[in-house]
Design goal:
Layout: H1 14-32, H2 47-66
GO cellular component, one term: chloroplast inner membrane
Protein name: Plastid division protein CDP1-like IMS domain-containing protein
Domain Plastid division protein CDP1-like IMS: 17-54
């Protein structure tokens, strides 16, 4: 959480939470799969977290190419 951000403290229905977790799991599986489908990550990650994931993924791909 960034300084100045406010948390939303409204109740979160269980059905919505379950749907969000399932969406995250499906998108994460695509991103970590053999084709590295990262474009859907923006649906479930904040911009700063998305940037970190993309940088990490690119580093891992580069290392794989070097040591392949």
């Amino acid at each position: 959480m960034l300084p100045g951000e406010v948390l939303d403290k409204r109740p979160f229905p269980v059905e919505e939470a379950e749907a969000l977790v399932k969406q995250w799991q499906a998108i994460k599986a695509e991103a970590l799969g053999p084709d590295h489908q990262l474009q859907s990550l923006s649906e479930v990650l904040s911009e700063s977290m998305l940037t970190q994931v993309i940088v990490h993924n690119n580093l891992m791909i580069s290392l794989a190419l070097i040591f392949d």
